[in-house]
Structure formats: C-alpha cells, structure tokens
Fold each of these.
Amino acid sequence: MKALAAVTGLASLLVSGIAYAEDIGSVSTSLNLLTPNDQIVVEVFDDPAVKGVSCYLSRARTGGAAAIFGMAEDKSDSSVACRQVGPISFVRPVAQQEQVFSEHASILFKRTHVIRMVDKKRGVLVYLVYTDELIDGSPKNALTAVPVSSDITIPTKG
C-alpha cells in the first residue's frame, strides 16, 4: 500500500512540478501507548522554479489509531520559513502566484498548500502556507518572504 502511494505521489510530482518535502525531524505532542503519538513534523523542500531557495515547513500530524490505517485528519496548524540557501537563479519564468507544494492532511478532502507570490516592485518572493478542505477551509496561515538580489530580475510569465 505504501509503495503504491509512493509511486502515485512520484508520478504526480513529475507531472505537476510541485516540490516534494523531505522529513527533517519531529517532536511528539502527546503520548499514546499503543498507537503513534501526535507530532509536529518539520520538513524541507526546494522551490522547483527558483534555485537557491528552500522552504522549511512545520505542521501538525495526528496520531492515534486512525493514523495506523492512514485515516487520521491532521490539524490545520502549520508554519513556513523560506530562506536563500545558495545563489538564486530561476529555472523558468514564474507566475505572479503559483502553488509550489501540496500534500494531503487527511485521507480525502484536506490539503496543506504553499503558494509562491511575486512582489516584483520590491524584488521579493513571498510564500504562504494554508490548509483547505472540500467543505470548509481554515483561515490559519503563515507567511515568509525571500528578498532577491537587486541585480537579478524576477522573470514572470505573461
């Protein structure tokens, strides 16, 4: 089952160009003796269109019996911090606003998204994390910004 999910996730990643997050670490926020603990997970992904920018994402991961069967619904709490980790260059022109990361927060209807926005006037890339649901999303969100050197023009689509 996990292998099928991994193959499906990899295939969608190749088609969509959306980043894949690597686990950095986690801390438990509850103690469940026989089932997985609730956790705060820290992950990192590289912006697929901007070399030299990595985003660190922390988010809640629900444990308990539902987590064993992949049925747990994660809370909408998340945070993002994007940083310049090398020389910035653009792989392709970027949209004024586009999704750079997305992952399920429940088995069907809830997703965590990271959206990149371009503030061309100030030469800044802005990253927003939020969670949506099919019926009712959450207003909880977090924001970070990465300045681009003044000698680099941000290539935008359109």
Note: Strands lie at 22-28, 39-46, 50-61, 78-90, 97-104, 110-119, 124-133, 141-147.
Amino acid sequence: MLAETDSTEKMTGNKKGKKDKKAYTLIELLVAMAILVIAFALVTILYVRASRVRRIISAGSEIQQVLNQMMRTLAYRDRTNTVKSLSTATNLYQQAGWVFGKYLVFGNAEEQKKQYYYIAPGENEPSSTGSDTTLWYGEAVSIPPANWICLDPNRRVTLLSGSCFEFYDGSNRKLESVENETPVRVVIQLIGKSNDPSLKTREPVLLKTGLRLRNKPSF
C-alpha cells in the first residue's frame, strides 16, 4: 500500500510539474506585451513616414501637372479650343495700368478680339489684392475682358511672385515694353506651390519655357 501511495504521489507530482512548465509568468506576459507595443509603434512610424513621402511626391506631381497644363494652353491650345494660345497670335499689345511682365495680350489679324493672359490673385476674376495668385484668361474687342476663365479652376496651386512673362527682341535683348518694340520671343516662367496647408514648407516647382514667335512677318 505504501509503495502504491508513493507511486501515485510521484505521478501526481509529475503532472503538476508539467502543468507548471506550460504556464506563463506575469513577467513573461509583460515582456511579450512590451515587444508587441514596440513593434506596433515602429510599424506606425514607418507607415506615417511612408504616407508623408507619398503625399509629398503626389503633391509635387500635381503641381507639375497643373503648370504643364497652363504652359501647354499658353503655347498651343486648350483641348476645347475655348482658350486661345500664342500659336494663333499675329500681334502683341501693351495694357495700360497693368504691371508689365504679369500679363500677355495678343491678337490675330483675322479677328477683332484680343486675348488676355493675366497672372493675378482673385476669386472670380483678377484682382489687385489677395494672396492666392493664379493664371487667368479672357477675350475682349478693345477693353479688358468682362469675363475671365481661371486656368486652375480647382485652385490646387498658387503661383508665386517670380511667375512672369518676359519679352525679347531679335538681338536677345530683354524688352521693358512691347508698345513700340517688335518682340520675337516670349519666355514664360511659372513658379507654383501647393495650396495644401500641410505642404507649405515644401520647395516650389519651377517651369520655364521660351516660345519664338515666327508665324507672322510682323514678329
């Protein structure tokens, strides 16, 4: 009987030992939780950084897209042909009272209308006040247009102060007026920055191109 009791106690003790080995202590659980928290924090940080990088790349691409569209419209034509481009021009004009270099006024000898491109702030039309500068287009017979079209209708980009039109003659001399001069080349410079508040510190995007006006002898 004594031997059987000892044998039973040994078996019971072995089972208890096995159960104790399978159990986790409080310290082990805390260590495991700490590792999980650290791993989750690292994954979160990496995700936030990747999202920010993706956002910056996307914003830069969007600015480039808007500026490219403006430049193509200026140099060639709008897809709907609503907006005229320099490819149709036969004459350039001076606009009294406007800051030279911030506008481009041209026309075609076959039409009586003048086409206006104006770099200026404004909500529904160009204004002398405001900060969100963009590119406007309008048409008129002899006076500045009554109706304007914003070439960035969603206002994704703000054009900075360096955005301008420059005019050069046949000797590559920069002109300060087109009233009594004969420009042969127009340089268009657009500097854009995203209107997203979280991207205000990012570097602006510069797009610059020159267009030689050789479609008419008058140029």
Note: The chain has one domain: 55-212.
Amino acid sequence: MASDIQIAFQGPMNLEKYDRSLPAALQHPSVPLPFLDSMAVREEVFVKGQNIPLLLEADSDDCRSYHWVAYTHDDYGSPIPVGNLRLVPFPHEAHPLPGSSFDLPESPIPTSNALKAQSRPWIVDRQTSFHDGKEPYLKLGRMAVVEACRGKGIASELVRTAIEWATQNSALFNQPDSKDESAVELDTSLVTWRGLICIHAQEYVADRWASWGFQVDEKMGRWTEAGIPHVGMFLRVKLTQIG
C-alpha cells in the first residue's frame, strides 16, 4: 500500500438530511464527513465513470452500513478521498436470480430524495453453492478507487481492514432479540454471524476478489446491474469468538 494512504471509519448513522439528488459537496453540514468523502469517491467512479444515476447511487443500506474511506494527501498535507468500501449487516434482500437484470433505466427511481433507513424483512432465501439460504452473512459492496490511484494496493487494504474489523467485532452483528415480520422470535442460529461474507462482484473484477479469498458461487448464477455483468462470491472467515 502507498505509504501516505490513511483509512477512516464511519459506522451506521442518521442520514435523513442527506439529499440523494445532490452531489456530496452540496450536502447538509450535519452529514458525517467520512460518508461525504465516501460518496465523493462513489460519484467519481460509479456516477461519472459508469453512468449510474446520482439518485440511485446512495440507498437506504448506507444508513445501517459500516464504511471505510481511503485518503491520500495533496502537496499541502490536506486529505483527498480516493477509495471506499462499505459493509452491510444482515438481513438482506433475496439473492438475484440467474439471468435477471437490474439494468437502467428500469431500476426504480426513489420516490423521495431523502435517505432514510428502512428495515429489511427476515427471509428464507434460495440455496446456492455456499449459502444454505438461512445463515446470516455480511455483504461487502460499493468498492471504488479513483482511477488515478489504482494499482497501489488501496483496494486490498480496504478489504483487509473491513474483514479484520468485522472479525474483531462480530458480536455487533448478532441480534438475539430479533423478530420476523410475523413477530415470531427467530432461532439463535438465524441471527448469529458465523463468518460468512458475500460480495456481488462486477464479473470483470471477479479475479481480484478471488485473490482476496472469495469464491464464485456458481449456483447463484450471473445477472446484470446497470448493464454490467455480476457474479456472487463468498468468503468464510474464522471467528475467534461467536455470539
């Protein structure tokens, strides 16, 4: 990793003052700076680089996610955000079906520009190669490094940092008092994280995720998001303490 790179952390936050129709530079001052810097990177890579509409780049998962932002520095020592990664806790929506498409402009435009947290229902998902459809997993996503800083080990350091943090703080993800939408208490095994991590990877960078230990889940299949082919990949990490 480049010697001048530093990584900042931002936990779940209230983003009701965030207006997803505006770029990060024009957001309300109450929005935490690491998240604004994270969004600045995502806008550079996804909105400008991959033509993702600004309204669709931020989503309700951002409010409940954990974010890491990588910084370099200019000639005066001021920090410049150059990379970002987020980790979304469970529960998650269902796995995409093989051959499905979430291409634009068919993706739904939010009815409100406000960025508010939304609870996700607990579901039994379809079984895939590495997921039984029930076990809770964490989901890494929104990995982005600005073009000028690629090839310097920033992505690797973000992934390493996030996974290391998750394994050291695994109890944060366990929700023993959770109930499903029918107000029925969930079995402990369904609300305890046991080291499974998922990534919906753009297919052309699947080899890069493989270098970090992730394996392509063949039964999950391929699908497209914003016209970009994706694959599901999983990694299981060893936890020193569960529950």
Note: The helical segments are 33-50, 54-57, 61-64, 154-168, 206-211.
